[in-house]
Design brief:
Layout lengths: L7 H24 L1 H10 L5 H21 L3 H19 L8 H24 L1
Helix pairs in contact: 1-3, 2-3, 3-4, 4-5
């Protein structure tokens, strides 16, 4: 049975983590595909459109596994890999000339580090 040995707070926390990934997946895969693929191409990511959809696939599989409490440890590892790769591609703060953009991307990177910490608690 799913969530069998979880407290209410653990269930809520796990669902909130999954919601982050599944919610951003829904937005990005339906409204921001070209924007992300163009950014990836500009950053010399190989096969940007295929890489983007592979990332979406990791995000979907890991997010559903965590939400469903089915092999949560594997789902969390998938989401950790996704988060590290997405951060390395999209949040290269050291390449930003504008101080505000640099600060924004550094802040996002720190937030992603915290998300990885939360995912590690699920492993």
């Amino acid at each position: 049975m799913f969530y069998a040995n979880h407290t209410t707070l653990e269930i809520i926390g796990q669902l909130l983590i999954a919601t982050l990934f599944l919610g951003t997946l829904l937005i990005n895969a339906t409204t921001k595909v070209k924007q992300h693929a163009d950014r990836m191409a500009a950053m010399n990511v190989p096969m940007p459109m295929a890489s983007l959809w592979m990332g979406f696939t990791l995000q979907a599989i890991g997010g559903v596994m965590v939400a469903a409490d089915w092999h949560t440890d594997i789902g969390a590892i998938i989401l950790i890999v996704f988060t590290v790769l997405a951060s390395a591609i999209f949040h290269r703060f050291w390449l930003m000339d504008d101080p505000l953009r640099r600060h924004m991307h550094l802040s996002i990177l720190f937030s992603n580090i915290a998300v990885i910490g939360a995912l590690l608690l699920l492993v």
